[in-house]
Write a structure and sequence with these properties.
InterPro entries: aa-tRNA-synth_II/BPL/LPL (IPR045864), HisRS-like_core (IPR041715), HisRS/HisZ (IPR004516), HisZ (IPR004517). Pathway: Amino-acid biosynthesis; L-histidine biosynthesis; L-histidine from 5-phospho-alpha-D-ribose 1-diphosphate: step 1/9. The protein has about 375 residues and is an alpha/beta fold. The protein contains twelve helices and 15 strands. Among the domains are: about 200 residues, BirA Bifunctional Protein, domain 2; about 50 residues.
Length: about 375
């Protein structure tokens, strides 16, 4: 008989990790509710057609057939189901939503990634103002302070920056995609070979520098002064400067970085992008941005939208690795002492009731839990 009957890429959660994860979810949910977001829940199963207009990254979806022969999937993303939900209802906009749930993505074999992930997030739909992005940035700052000991750095980018630059050089979309892929993946030799054909253009020196345009905003902006960029690019840089100035004024202690050669979190992003990461762990804890054309694939009229996802599992990993082991107290008592034991339980921090039959069994239980025994059968009471 097989000892592990779990599907590949999934895991059971219990004990300390499960408790920490639930605490993180509660803190996030309370924060969203306190700021006036409305909770929305979508089904775990969605029709495959909901995700077909988009390339959702380097993973596959879990597929199955329903009783009508339609292909349905375990949702690999939370934003697209909410877009589907909004297109099928008459909810008045603008609205601010929050969600939490599991998503399922079949990752590359041997990638080390789990296929089942817990994600929380927000969707601000119907807001064209930059204040929608600012709301997300404030939440990254506040939640990181509530949940983590290590500060989170916010990395800013522009979803269509690469497209805007490359479209000034060539109309060949296949070539644009090839250059962008090499840029995003930091394949510098291949990238430099691809841009060689533009060596006589005014933008060539910028193209050579482009893969290294990431880091402290002030340093990046100073480097950009050396290049005579098209007005469309200069306008995007100016928008970034305004956002950074606002962050410095509103959250002066917030660590910031800029990456002008990064891939947008998803294909449907159109404007400012932001990611939050901790130097204590790998991966982005927060990720989001503007995607004003998202709803156009579900209805005739599009809507302005900004969203942010939160990787609950990565945050849990950081919290569990940083937290110290709690010294529990195990209350051992006789059945007739149950009421007294409840009183001791309520007055004692980090205490639990022992349900063992004998003192010897309680000692074994305490050893497994690394706990200290409070033996009420011998008169150990806490007043």
């Amino acid at each position: 008989m097989k000892n592990n009957l779990l599907p590949l890429g999934t895991r059971d959660e219990f004990g300390r990790r499960a408790s920490e994860k639930q605490h993180i979810i509660s803190v996030i949910a309370d924060s969203f509710s306190d700021r006036g977001f409305s909770k929305v829940s979508t089904p775990l199963l969605e029709k495959q057609a909901v995700f077909e207009p988009y390339k959702l990254g380097n993973y596959q979806m879990y597929r199955l057939l329903d009783q009508e022969g339609d292909t349905i999937v375990l949702r690999p993303d939370m934003t697209l189901p909410i877009a589907r939900f909004l297109s099928s209802t008459n909810i008045a906009l603008p609205q601010k939503f929050w969600y939490i749930g599991d998503i399922f993505r079949i990752s590359r074999r041997l990638s080390g990634s789990y296929n089942e992930l817990t994600q929380a997030g927000i969707e601000l739909v119907g807001y064209s103002s930059i204040k929608a992005e600012f709301e997300c940035l404030v939440l990254i700052n506040q939640l990181s302070q509530k949940l983590l000991d290590e500060p989170v750095e916010i990395e800013l980018g522009i979803a269509d920056f690469t497209k805007a630059v490359l479209s000034t050089l060539t109309d060949d979309e296949d070539l644009q995609d090839e250059i962008a892929a090499a840029l995003y993946d930091k394949q510098v030799p291949k990238y430099e070979q691809l841009i060689q054909r533009f060596s006589t253009t005014d933008e060539y020196q910028f193209l050579l520098k482009w893969p290294r345009l990431f880091g402290k905003p002030d340093v990046i902006f100073e480097q950009l002064k050396d290049f005579n960029l098209p007005e469309s690019i200069q306008n995007r840089v100016a928008e970034l400067k305004n956002v950074i100035d606002w962050i410095k004024q509103t959250m002066p202690e917030q660590a910031l970085s800029l990456d002008l050669s990064s891939r947008a979190p998803q294909k449907y992003y159109t404007g400012l992008t932001f990611k939050g990461f901790s130097k204590a762990g790998s991966g982005y804890l927060f990720s989001g941005g503007r995607y004003d054309k998202l709803l156009s694939n579900f209805q005739d009229v599009s809507e302005s939208a900004v969203g942010m996802g939160i990787d609950i599992d990565l945050i849990t990993d950081l919290v569990v690795s940083d937290s110290k082991e709690v010294n529990k107290k195990l209350i051992y008592f006789k059945p007739e002492q149950w009421q007294e034991a409840e009183k001791v339980l309520n007055k004692t921090t980090d205490a639990i009731l022992s349900l063992s039959e004998t003192r010897e069994d309680a000692e074994v239980e305490a050893k497994k839990l690394n706990a200290t025994i409070i033996d009420m059968t011998e008169g150990e009471f806490i007043e």
